[in-house]
Design brief:
- This protein is α+β, with helices and mostly antiparallel strands.
- It is built from 2 helices and 2 strands, in the order H-H-E-E.
- Strands 1-2 form a two-stranded antiparallel sheet.
- The radius of gyration is 13 Å and the shape is globular.
């Protein structure tokens, strides 16, 4: 997926699939969500940009859901 083998993805953070501009702030956003319980982005389809292993950036739709 995204040009990675399954073994390359095990025990890795989701940040490796994000462009650098987003990946460096992602941990803070997750921490903020966990503290504030802000559900604005949950249960909605979102357009995001992913970084392929080849470093190409491409659009991708995701759907966030709390389990």
């Amino acid at each position: 997926m995204f040009g990675y083998n399954k073994s390359e993805m095990i025990n890795r953070k989701i940040n490796i699939f994000m462009p650098n501009l987003y990946s460096k702030f992602h941990d803070a956003h997750v921490e903020n969500f966990l503290q504030s319980n802000d559900n604005r982005n949950i249960n909605k389809e979102r357009l995001v940009y992913i970084k392929m292993k080849s470093n190409y950036i491409m659009p991708c739709y995701i759907y966030l859901k709390v389990i």
